[in-house]
From TrEMBL:
Acyl-CoA dehydrogenase C-terminal domain segment(s): 235-360
Pfam families: Acyl-CoA_dh_2, Acyl-CoA_dh_N
InterPro entries: Acyl-CoA_DH_C (IPR013107), Acyl-CoA_Oxase/DH_mid-dom_sf (IPR046373), AcylCo_DH-like_C (IPR036250), AcylCoA_DH/ox_N (IPR013786), AcylCoA_DH/ox_N_sf (IPR037069), AcylCoA_DH/oxidase_NM_dom_sf (IPR009100)
GO molecular function: acyl-CoA dehydrogenase activity; flavin adenine dinucleotide binding
Chain ranges of the Acyl-CoA dehydrogenase/oxidase N-terminal domain: 21-101
Oxidoreductase among keywords: yes
Name under which the protein is recorded: Acyl-CoA dehydrogenase
Alphabetic keyword roster: Oxidoreductase
Amino acid sequence: MSDTISGDARALALPNLLRGAIESARDEADELGRLPGHLIAELRDAGAFSLFTPAEYGGLEVSLTTALTVYERLGRIDTSVAWVVWNANFGFTAAMLGEAGAAKVWASGREPVLANAGQPGKAVVVDGGYRLSGQWSIVSGIEAAEWFVPLGVVMDGGQPATGKPDVRLFHVGQEQLKIEHTWDVSGMRATGSHRVVIEDAFVPAELTANIDEPLRLDRPTYRLNPILLVFGGCTAVALGAVEEAIEELVALAPGKTTPFGGLLAEQPHVQETLARHETAVRAARLFLFDVARRIDETAERGERTTVALHADLHSAMAHAAAVGRDALVAMYRLGSSTSLYRGNALERLYRDGMVALQHVNQAPEFFGGSGRVRLGLEPGLPLF
């Protein structure tokens, strides 16, 4: 237990530890359209990519609540960096693979740089493993990744196998894939979220894992369905960007004059708008982190998470995204002409935060699935 506690403490120290390196690399990353290699190395060496990696593989093995806190705090510093860190934290797959497979991925003795994508490719069974093919759009941090970890559905005669589909995570080496440079954007440019194409790549069976099978390590983090470890990170990153945008408006308002006389901070509509949106964001954060705490407590007790708890997570994420989007728009508007200029924090946070809030994990359609669960029905959505 002491290892887990020290891992959580080390993880929570990461944002402050890495702040200087992240901020000094921001312009370079934006120009490159990806995080520079020296920053990737600093993030990896500090442990930012090993939040969910088991301790025996050198990882921090943190709780979901701790991971979301780290993503949120990094999001306040730089949304692109926080996003790549979130997408790279697939170290829990060391507990999904058998010992032989995990030894291959973690062969160097240090944390491998991973990247993942949720859209499923297609796999067919062959002698010794699988042949995987597919296209995966918007794969953040893929140029730095040593291993790509996509989903794949095992096919039988061109169709998913009868019954419950065999959905697996595949570990594919960088040399087996093609990167198409499709990430031509203004917001979160530095994530380098390009398209990945794989054509009939052989993946040994030991480098795959069925997402519905229990993980082989019986400790709290690995008692959770991997979906629960992954899904909420994008919302935590986005909340960090929104929270920082509010702080930037608070810092700007006392010194900014308005065309209508007086300072921005003196305007009643500014005061009311600020307080209303900050209250909504704080409440949305509390809901998200309350759900994360309950998920962690369920894992600590060794119990299975219920579909109702999954529904709460999806509702908390969709709600935080809606509230966060409204708050970002409001802060950008209140900042007036200051919000327009590149190099200004409000402009950057608005641009990056809006991209983060576009992620499908927090789409309003998830409210429908949660509502169906509340009414005693199946959620009717994949990966719920």
